[in-house]
Amino acid sequence: MSVFTRLADKRPRMYYGWWMTVFAVITALPNTILFTGFSGFLEPLQVSFAASAAAISVAFVFLRAEAGIGTPIAGFLVDAYGPKPVMLGGGIILGLGAAIVALSQSLFIFYVGFFILAFGVSVSGPIVANIAVARWFDRYRGKAFAVISMGTPVWSLSIPLVVLAIDTFGWRATMWGLGIVSVAIIVPFSFLYRKSPEEYGLKPDGVSDDAPRPQHAVRGPEVSLPLRDVLRHPAFWLLMVSYGSFSFVHTGLFSQLIPILQASSGVSRSTAAAVSALIALVSLPGRLVLGALADTVKPGYVLALTFVLMLVGVLALALVPGDLGIVALVVFYGIGFGGCVPVRHVVQGYLFGSQNFGKVQGMLRIADTLVGIPAPIATALIYDATHSYVLALLMFVVAFALTIPAALSPRMSSAAQKA
Is 18 left (phi over 0), alpha (psi -120 to 50) or beta? Predict the structure, then answer.
């Protein structure tokens, strides 16, 4: 029996759900590097394969497409068998994909490898962790998701080092390193995940049934809806709009963030990479404060606030020249993005409960993916046509503006509580 298994099998002094949030932060490395740091690979890949930005951005599309394919599969598997086998298999697939990408000598083989890599990421990353942890928390779900979401800003601090490694050792060696480190982290930690608190004779949040509820709680005892009822509820479709809008903007923006920052103010690659990491760092208070706030007020209102903040940040980058626009992006988009990540999951649990969390998450991610797929290519095509990212940024602003009313809709009330 491994040391990891012995640790997980012991009845922990600290509620084990909180340990799982820590594991989720640690295993977020590959997802963070690929999503947040992809733009650092963009220029070297263009040179290596003599391809346009749009052609290389197809690989980033695979990250979105595979989330749409892999997340529903992962959701059903985690709900049925628990997170351990899903994350273990995903980690192995991720390593295989990274090796193929690093060895690729043609754009086609690069696409194949990245497709496999993206699938491994989708079934071994934060999505699986979110689904697993959802069953361990009810009253403190916002705080738990806030902790999980810290994985992205924590690992994003390594983006400047990743860009330095690419510039120093080349993108192939960097990809090899990413694959090896990812497997070394995900495979052993997968054995620490558990399906439900009932395995320890506990209830969600680690409390007994007769424990007093906080006076500020905004919801009563959880009632989970069957998937067929979820799909018939208007709140599901409104939440799907919110998922799709965030996916479109965030995917388009971060697929080419370093070139966007270089074009907007003429900063160097290393400075742009540092700004990318700074956005993730600034997102930390947004994740913690807004995630916790969603436990105390109607989470749909908090979700709308995150969209307003991100809208202001992107609009400033588009219209305010120089460093001031970048500062506004870092502050407003960073805080809003940070809050949006955990609050979306809190809203889902608030609306529909946790028993079918993986299945519902999988359905939401299908729309998330379909809307996010064209974003990197559209962003690159707009730049290729206009030699500017301003129109693309204004497109992102419109997407956010159209989404805020959906998050504020009275229909975004708890379907599970009314069941």
Answer: alpha
Enter the pTM of the model: 0.68
Residue 317 confidence class, pLDDT cut points 50, 70, 90: very high
pLDDT at res. 136? 87
**Contact in structure between 102 and 150 (CB atoms under 8 Å):** no
Q: How confident is the model at residue 4 (pLDDT cuts 50, 70, 90)?
A: very low
Q: Are 59 and 376 in contact (CB under 8 A)?
A: no
Alpha helices in 233-373 (DSSP H): 234-255, 257-265, 269-285, 291-293, 299-319, 323-328, 334-352, 357-372
User: In Å, how far are 72, 318, 386, 402 from 242, measured between CA atoms?
Assistant: 18, 22, 29, 9
Helix or strand (DSSP H, E) at 169 = helix 159-169
What is the chain's Cα-based Rg? Answer: 20
169-177: Cβ within 8 A, 24+ apart: 170/44, 171/41, 171/44, 171/45, 171/48, 172/102, 172/103, 173/102, 174/41, 175/98, 175/101, 175/102, 176/98, 176/99, 176/102
